[in-house]
Amino acid sequence: MITGSESREGDEVCIEAEAPLACVMEYSSALKFMTSGEGEFSMTFSRYEQVPGNIQKALVAEARQ
């Protein structure tokens, strides 16, 4: 979820967003591809949230194996 954006010098844009850690794990590769290696990102922990029910069930089933 995008929470803000800011134009910077040239054609740079800084975008602030919140995303589950599971989604961010592959973001670095995708960003490099989308920006021809020019993009960069950083992340900080924000908070814990309850996992959606369908993901909970999948995680429990995986842990039981």
Topology:
Blueprint: E1 2-7, E2 13-17, H1 21-24, H2 27-34, H3 53-64
For the sheet with most strands, the description reads:
2 strands, antiparallel
| Average pLDDT reading | 90
Helix/strand structural class: alpha+beta
Number of domains: 1
Query: Count of DSSP helices?
Result: 3
State Rg.
Answer: 16 Å
The residue fraction in helices comes out at: 25-40%
Low-confidence stretches: none
Estimated share of beta-strand residues: 15-25%
How many extended strands?
A: 2
Written as H for each helix and E for each strand, in order along the chain, the element string is EEHHH
Give the strand order, joined by hyphens, for the main sheet: 1-2
What gross morphology would you assign? Answer: elongated
End-to-end CA span: 33 Å
What features would you describe in this structure?
This protein has one domain. 37% of the residues lie in helices and 17% in strands. The chain contains three helices and two strands, in the order ββααα. The chain has a two-stranded antiparallel sheet with strand order 1-2. The chain is elongated. The relative contact order is 0.10. The model has no long low-confidence stretch (mean pLDDT 90).
